[in-house]
């Protein structure tokens, strides 16, 4: 963060000198300040970003985590009622995630639990 203000100051000096040269016949004399100012701004901005990186990632995680939990809750909740368990068994079969034999075996287990 410390290199950021001097870098901005050098860039401002460069632009002021450049635009003041338009009204006269002299060339800009402090144009070199821009070449020194840009690296200072880059270093200062990267230091500033690194310093706030933890806060930024904590904020982003806090914003996205509730959405992810809401999306995962139905998938993590195991149905307890036999009718719900049988309906939950239909989706993997429809998506061809389990074979017909596995489906029949699981269905028989659900029916035995009645």
Tell me what the structure shows.
The longest helix has 45 residues, at 32-76. Helix 3 (82-94) runs antiparallel to helix 4 (100-112). It is built from four helices and no strands. It is mainly α. It is rod-shaped, with a radius of gyration of 32 Å. It has two domains: 1-75, no CATH class; 78-114, no CATH class. It is 77% helix and 0% strand.
Which features would summarize this protein structure in a list?
mainly alpha; 2 domains; 4 helices; 0% strand
Q: What is the beta-strand fraction? A: under 5%
Secondary structure: helix percent? over 70%
From the spread of the alpha carbons, the general shape counts as rod-shaped
In N-to-C order, the SSE pattern is HHHH
Integer-rounded radius of gyration: 32 Å
Number of E-type strands? 0
Q: What gap, in angstroms, lies between the N and C termini?
A: 68 Å
Q: How many H/I helices?
A: 4
Summing up helix and strand content along with how strands pair, one would put the structural category as mainly alpha
Poorly predicted spans: none
- The tally of domains stands at 2
**Most strands sheet:** none
Quick check: average pLDDT? 79
List the helices and strands and how they pair.
Blueprint: H1 4-20, H2 32-76, H3 82-94, H4 100-112
